[in-house]
Amino acid sequence: MINNDLKMGKGKIAAQSGHASVSATLKMGSSKPNLLDAWLTSGQKKVCLKTTHDELLKLESEAGKLGIQTVRINDAGKTQIPSGSLTVIAFGPAQDGELEQLTGHLKLL
Hints:
Helix content is 49%, strand content 17%. It is an alpha+beta fold and 109 residues long.
């Protein structure tokens, strides 16, 4: 999920999303390898959604309560975003139904 409050450019969003996807995949490989294998063999679905900074934090907390993995990406501050800014949070991999209950109200990027 993208922090839409930051008004990042398309390239910045792509880069931050890439960081999140790779980080989530690596984290899942060490914590839940069976779920990772299922995700890798079923098309590696990814959905990009946008929301506010505050909503990102709320959803991250809710995901934790449900046992859904999250990965935060904070910007290094080398280009257009201040250092330390929360740009993206990756959720999952997880079952579609699990993520839908968290994110079904959000808009696609």
